[in-house]
Amino acid sequence: MTEIVTRYRLQGAAWTLAITDYVAVFLLPYVQRRRLSRESVGQLYTRDLTTREVVVEQATLLTRVNAAWGRVSFDVKQAVAEREAMFRQGYHCLGLWHSHPEEIPHPSPRDLALLKNHAAAATTQDYAGIVFAILGTLPLPQGLGIWVHDGEVLHEAKAVFGGS
Q1: Please, which residues have CB within 8 angstroms of residue 27's CB and are 6 or more apart in sequence?
Q2: How many whole angstroms separate alpha carbon 110 and alpha carbon 59?
């Protein structure tokens, strides 16, 4: 049985985002612990967008087109094809994750521009926003930053301790 490792809440939101142990274990190899390691990137999926607790059940790894210690880019066509394949399996894409070579991750200016573009595209497809997760070097929950971009504003989600 999959267990919830941690939950994140947006201020004023009626829902939480839950990270499963399966997803946490999937992300661990992509933590940038070495000085010359390159950033990794992937997507996050859930089966149900309508519950008060949206559970991130799957994470994937996208092929890096260009990657360095402090930046990464991916093939957008591959990401779209993956979303379509996952949708056929009953999954909905919540957004993107990528790694950062810092303990407690924060979006860079490049991240903010990318996220704004993806959020704007998502809102044209009847999504309320896009989840953006950054994997830092500290253990979860401190080492996983979660944000939601609604197409206009980036909102930071905070880890919830002791229940939702």
Answers
A1: 59, 97, 135, 144
A2: 22
pLDDT digits 0-9 by tens, 43-59: 999 999 999 999 999 99
| Residue 21 phi, psi dihedral angles, 5° rounding | -60, -35
Phi and psi based region of residue 157 (left: phi greater than 0; alpha: psi -120 to 50; beta: remaining): beta
Which among 68, 136, 122 is positioned nearest to 92, based on CA atoms?
Answer: 122
Q: What is the dihedral of CA 9, 15, 21, 22, to 10 degrees?
A: -130
Structure tokens at 15: 């829902």
Q: What is the sign of the dihedral through the CA atoms of 114, 116, 120 and 126?
A: positive
CA distance 55 to 155: 18
Dihedral pair phi/psi, residue 37, rounded to 5°: -70, 155
- Model pTM? 0.89
